[in-house]
Write a structure and sequence with these properties.
The complex is a heterodimer of chains A (115) and B (109). Chain A is mainly beta. Helix content of chain A is 0%, strand content 52%. In chain A, a hairpin with a 5-residue loop joins strand 9 and strand 10. In chain A, 37% of the residues are buried. With 109 residues, chain B is an all-beta fold. Classes of the chains: A mainly beta (115), B mainly beta (109). At the A-B interface, strand 5, strand 9 and strand 10 of A face strand 6, strand 9 and strand 10 of B.
Chain lengths: 115, 109
């Protein structure tokens, strides 16, 4: 079934550890995104990709990095986690509709806690 | 720069009452506006888009370019409408979304 998958769903990790948040989609979409969301707060775009080997930084500055080696896979990496990285991370992908507009589909999110 | 503002963090109404979630935006071009909803323990999902002029689950939203608003309305709220609602704007880039801060709707029995 076409979907967006994120793993892990929950992660508690100590300061200084390297972590990778996984995002995969089987929807055949070219464009993918990472958002950061604090509880009850707005979503902030931190990374996006238009396709393989394309990555850009979003509106919110982030110490994380991303890669896009395969169309369906868009992992996010933190080289050295800090408590300020504690947040929810949402992955999304989009397709262009017949009207020319785009619709974004979201994964279930990864809730990261850095102690 | 594009910006989306949702002035109410929390909106609490009784079942059967009308509900209006406010959304204002700033954008110099012709934006496309969306409402996304996140029910408890579920992922964020698209509720409706202004370009479709559709009614989904009884909700409607009209784009008012003069007032730069895209308020979400429902004449009779139901308990299952309780959720977090986000207004979002897409500008000329077409696929980049700017989200508002969200409004939590609580519908009391």
């Amino acid at each position: 079934e076409a979907d967006i998958y994120q793993t892990p769903r929950y992660l508690v990790i100590g300061t200084g550890k390297k972590i990778t948040l996984e995002c995969s989609q089987t929807m055949g979409h070219d464009k993918m995104y990472w958002y950061q969301q604090d509880p009850g707060m707005e979503l902030h775009l931190i990374h996006y990709s238009y396709g393989v080997n394309s990555t850009e930084k979003g509106d919110l500055s982030s110490e994380s990095t991303v890669s896009r080696i395969r169309t369906e896979h868009f992992p996010l990496t933190l080289e050295s986690a800090r408590p300020s990285h504690t947040s929810q991370y949402l992955c999304a992908s989009s397709k262009r509709r017949g009207t020319g507009s785009y619709e974004q589909y979201f994964g279930p999110g990864t809730r990261l806690t850095v102690t | 720069a594009q910006r989306v503002t949702q002035p109410e963090k929390l909106l609490s109404v009784f079942k059967g009452a009308p509900v209006e979630l406010k959304c204002n935006y700033s954008y110099s071009g012709s934006p496309e506006l969306f409402w996304y909803v996140q029910y408890s323990r579920q992922r964020l999902q698209l509720l409706l888009r202004h370009i479709s002029r559709e009614s989904i689950k009884g909700f409607t939203a009209d784009l008012n370019k003069g007032e730069t608003s895209f308020h979400l309305k429902k004449p009779f709220a139901q308990e299952e409408d309780s959720a977090m609602y986000y207004c979002a704007l897409s500008g000329n880039a077409g696929n980049m979304l700017t989200f508002g801060g969200g409004t939590r709707l609580m519908v009391k029995p």
